[in-house]
Amino acid sequence: MVVASTDPIRSAKIRAIDLPIVDLLAERTEVSKFLVKACEEFGFFKVINHGVPKDIITQMEDECFEFFSKPVSEKQRAGPPNPYGYGSKNIGFNGDVGEVEYLLLDINPLSIFQGSNTISNDPSKFSNALSGYVEAVRGLACEILDLMAEGLWVLDTSVFSRFIRDVDSDSLLRLNYYAPLKDRDTSPSSFHHLQHQHHPLPPLCYHHHHPHNNKIGFGEHSDPQILTILRSNDVGGLQISVDDGEWVPVSPDPTAFCVNVGDVLQAMTNGRFLSVRHRAMVNSNKCRMSMAYFGAPPLHASITCPPELIAPTRPQRYRPFTWAEYKKAMYSLRLGDSRLNLFRLHSDNESRE
């Protein structure tokens, strides 16, 4: 089942197309086939009937707004992001910037407990909300990865998911907050009281709408990990890049999660799945908040392709590598650089990606 995006078209380079929507309550074989098709064509899909309880999502969103509504000096107690913690504007280590505030969270149980003290005035409430959310979205990610393996006819259907089930998984949660363009001089705390009148979504920030203003909140990039499970409030801004170089706006959907393939999964599927390039635009008159779970392997896990996905007509495209190796390469490059090329096995009849 697919639906068309309804986001406004911002320029000639942006168009609305049908994006895949996966219903996890549909027949399992059909779901696995559809997932494979979505990952081969787009590297992206939305998932509905995902089984993550609404109250778990709401509690985590409330904690996010609670944090980002604080004065800057209080938020900075949770920073700098090295590699976890609070950051603003600067993204990564190589000069990339965006119109974004963010909080990077290590999600192993001990780190959740320890980190909550600098993040929240009620650490146990924050850590409980975070633990519940992480457990739910990790379960969703594992289910999706197992379905993908089934759809690819891989004998060991846990070949992808075991990495993020591992106790040493390097998975993380990133919370992003984008203030509206015309509200940059206003702290989120100025309207914080409106957000928590039994409603997890932010209010309008009462400014004139400028539909052609396309300020980038988070620049073009692919995610390095295995799989990303993204939840955002009911405000547009996410765009994915399709193979002809055009940008496709992703319509917000309060009932769905957005899921995208990461670099590691592209390597493990021998290039069949696409690690989609995407970006986030700043909305002119609404605040946008997103929560991204990045499912990642343990640092010293070996990333290689299952033998079923290698054939004479499709030789192995990437050399085996560890997640630690890949992270080192990632930290050495700019946000938009192509990291997988560094691990590509080149043959005479293949061109560079």
Characterise the protein shown here:
This protein has 353 residues and is an alpha+beta fold. 28% of the residues lie in helices and 22% in strands. β9 and β10 (247-249) form a beta hairpin. The longest helix has 29 residues, at 123-151. Residues 168-297 form the Fe2OG dioxygenase domain.
- Mean pLDDT comes to 83
Largest sheet: 9 strands, mixed
* Rg, Cα atoms, Å: 20 Å
> What share of residues is helical?
25-40%
Which class do the helix and strand fractions yield?
A: alpha+beta
Which descriptor suits the 3D outline? globular
The number of distinct β-strands equals: 15
Terminal-residue CA separation: 30 Å
Low-confidence stretches: 1-12, 185-213, 348-353
Strand content: 15-25%
Count of DSSP helices?
9
Physical arrangement of strands within the biggest beta sheet: 1-2-3-11-8-13-6-5-4
- Could you spell the SSE succession in H and E letters? EEHEHHEEHHHEHEEEEEHEEEEH
